[in-house]
Amino acid sequence: MKVVKFGGSSVASATQYKKVANIILADKDRKAVIVSAPGKRHENDVKTTDLLIQLAGSVNDEGYDQSIFDKVLFRYKEIIEELGLPSGLEEEIAGSLLELISLYKYNEERLLDALKSSGEDNNAKVMTAYLNSLGQKAVYISPKEAGMVVTDEPGNAQILPEAYEKIAELRNREGILVIPGFFGYSYQGNIVTFPRGGSDITGSIIAAGMDAVEYENFTDVDSVYCVNPKMVENPCEMKEITYREMRELAYSGFSVFHDEALQPVFQKGIPVRVKNTNRPEAPGTRIVLDRELNGRPVVGIASDTDFCSVNITKYLMNRELGFGRKLLSILEDEGISYEHTPSGIDNISVILRSYELDNGKEERVIERIKNELLVDDINIERNLAMIMVVGEGMKHTVGIASKAAQALAESQSNIKMINQGSSEVSMMFGVDGGSVVRAVNCLYKAYFTANPSKEKSIH
Ligand code: ASP
């Protein structure tokens, strides 16, 4: 039994719907189907979820913006008409949107979550109707019925552990089960959405709960590439990677698969396969617990921009008991989440995503660090990019770092930070934001197109 998830671009139009139905019906093991809301039909299109966010923002005492409402409705109308489905479906969708608006119009946060969730909810209903129209037994299952109980924080739902027992019962249901992605219900009775892109998370939870043999995640690329194809021309594809490698890559810019989505399947060891709705015959990329290390210690290179580094110096810092704790508790007080803390003997840097210092936090944090920790110097370096070189094979290979250093030198990038965690699945380099494309290209050349003879396996 497989769980299959289709992302926004896979269900963006009637043409895409037909491809999806062919995929579902081509394999009778495809038992549970998770759908996103209709996504972009072309590059400049707007996702239904973004329209719904606009709609929620337009609601006030007098009503709502009718033109946005119509745009949302049109996304479904187009699909319903082109597939020849009953027009009553469209009226049902309009009615349910109006109901959500009137129910939640005095509660901004809940209104936003309820409208966001309707994107996938209505799409799951349309998909069910389409599969039925093809003579298939398909049933719409709401997340409530499926047992998706989640925490109550709007826009940031987390699945509760007890959800899995109820989800397991879905195995006994007859027909193809169509479940909307992206949200669950809290014990307080609220609709709560996962973070953006969260239909991947629903799929993973359902796959884990139903104990699927595989979780197939259909998107619009043939596979996960070793490096961002927008940065490097024609990069090689990854056939198989581990959850840990995927997690490291997703952290630093690989957006193919939601990073939070790996946890449920990872815990159960259920393999994930990322595939292309537009070319289902391509094998895609498999994400697994363990893989054969096939001689190439590095599987991928990812990068992300917009980091900054808070650099702090204090003479004899290394001997001062509690310095690190006090520093981090200032950040905690201010609600700032940090990424890395590379350090020297008398200095420490805290690497953050730049937006963490918005809304006046920067001035406050600097003042507090100066006053409470009596540091000699503090400055902020901006526009940093992080590059992550990832591969399980690195642990057993010497010469990886020297290759990276050489490639970065060739690309004329100044290394501002190097970080390698104890797991040795990744090595991270901080460089100036302006040099990141050059740096990634040189690294790609070094690890993927050059002869790997300089690295030595130490098995
Ligand atoms: N529709 C939601 C979003 O755009 C969730 C998803 O597609 O996974 O973020």
Kindly describe this structure:
It contains 14 helices and 17 strands. By secondary structure, it is an alpha/beta fold. It folds into 2 domains: 2-288, Acetylglutamate kinase-like (Carbamate kinase), CATH 3.40.1160; 300-457, 2-Layer Sandwich (VC0802-like), CATH 3.30.2130.10. An 8-stranded mixed β-sheet has the order 3-4-2-1-7-9-10-8, with helices on both faces. It has a 5-stranded antiparallel β-sheet with strand order 12-11-13-16-15. Strand 5 and strand 6 (191-193) form a beta hairpin. Helix 8 runs parallel beside helix 10 and helix 11 packs antiparallel against helix 12 (361-373). It starts with a strand and ends with a strand. The mean pLDDT is 93. Bound molecules: aspartic acid. Aspartic acid binds next to helix 8. Aspartic acid is lined by residues 8, 36-37, 47, 49, 119, 181-182, 196-200.
